[in-house]
Specification:
This protein starts with a strand and ends in an 8-residue tail after the last helix. The chain is built from 17 helices and 15 strands. Strand 10, helix 11 and strand 11 form a beta-alpha-beta unit. The chain has a seven-stranded mixed beta sheet, with helices on both faces. Strands 8-7-6-9 form a four-stranded parallel beta sheet, with helices on both faces. Helices cover 41% and strands 16% of the residues. It is globular. The longest helix has 21 residues. Helix 4 crosses helix 10 and helix 5 packs parallel to helix 7. The chain is α/β, with parallel strands linked by helices. It has a domain of 268 residues: Rossmann fold (3-Layer(aba) Sandwich), CATH 3.40.50. The protein binds pyridoxal-5'-phosphate. Pyridoxal-5'-phosphate (PLP) binds next to helix 5 and helix 11.
Amino acid sequence: MATKKYLLSENDIPTAWYNIVADMVNKPLPPLHPGTKQPLNPSDLEPIFATELIKQELSQERWIEIPEEVRDLYKIWRPTPLVRATGLEKALDTPAHIYFKNEGISPVGSHKLNSALPQAYYNKKQGIKKLTTETGAGQWGAALAFACSVFGLELEVYMVKVSYNQKPYRRSMMQTWGADVYASPSDRTESGRKILARDPDNSGSLGIAISEAVEKSVFDPEIRYTLGSVLNHVILHQTVIGLEAEKQMEMAGEFPDVVIGCFGGGSNFSGISFPFLRHKLVAGKEIRIVAAEPASCPKLSRGKFEYDFGDTVGLTPLLPMYTLGHDFQPADIHAGGLRYHGAGTIVSQLHKDHFVDVEDIPQIESFEAGQLFAKTEGTIPAPESTHAIASAIRAAKKAKEEGKQKTILFNLSGHGLIDMSAYDQYLSGNMKNYQLSDEDIAKTVNVLEHLVP
Ligand SMILES: *Cc1c(COP(=O)(O)O)cnc(C)c1O
């Protein structure tokens, strides 16, 4: 069977992002000030984020217009194709129809650019000169580096030290687009110096890198901080994925029974699934949405719903979320973008209200799925995206067992061409799964009870 691809024209790029908060039965709880532990005032965030992004963060409006300049830049690679994975279907001998939305075709190789561009745009418009951010494997840093170069902003990136040393190519990409990249923990911030004094060989974590990047922005009025996942405004920007996919599934004459995204902080998962979940919230339509998280960093399935910090040092607002605790140190899996301790507040509330299913994928199963996808569909997926593929394969096998035709849609959040060392390890048989005991999780989760009185 020939590959079926559903393509839209530039005019079909959405003109507004979808804010699911407007349709939620139980709205997310408010973020709290890290010092007073009282609900945050929007003005508390002014030193950290651009004003327009703070408005979006707290907005309850259903549709938020995409600025024309941003929409124009989306045209560099959007709309992205929706593809029927006929090769994969055949290999699985399944009655299921499997579709994927390919976000890997962006210039930076992932969905991250969908939010990097508007974030850089609103900061530029406000007269900000420089942005700071953190990055793990480098996907977000790379996207923001390109966005800053487009808008003429300076950028300082704190990159988790272990990735800085192991993934030199994304660092070179960021530097090619003009960003300054520092291995975190660094000696450039109080947060970094404190950690290095205690532990000079600390290899870093996303939580620590966030502390450094936030600290840098707080004391300089010309600098703002940006985040590539977790927050409401980031999730909002990513809904272009699902809004396009909604039109493309219509072209295919189907509505998905299952929508799947891999899960780090929740941005690509929310981006693909929220426009579909809307049909369930407002019209009661049957649909299952699945967050595919790594078994070694299972914040949704085994974390606790509590107020927690977004960073390690405790500089960010306290967010109500499913979390493994801000001191949780995830195993060194290859899906760097999924190694974060918490889930965004919107997804957390939806999961609490039983609108989100979760599947935990062991590392080796994710790479088996990634290789099968590469062999049947061509694209070598990012290690993060292989989790969504593994979950789609589980659903397709279940459809076969039950003899049912199910329609499955997943998001291919990125390609894996800069992650070939991970595939090398898998192919040589040296990859392993990580077991996490309940005691391990309790260590960093139990302390959270005392964070907010
Ligand atoms: C960053 C990243 C993720 C995880 O982040 P989310 O905010 O959960 O989407 C997943 N896939 C790729 C390719 C990434 O770069």
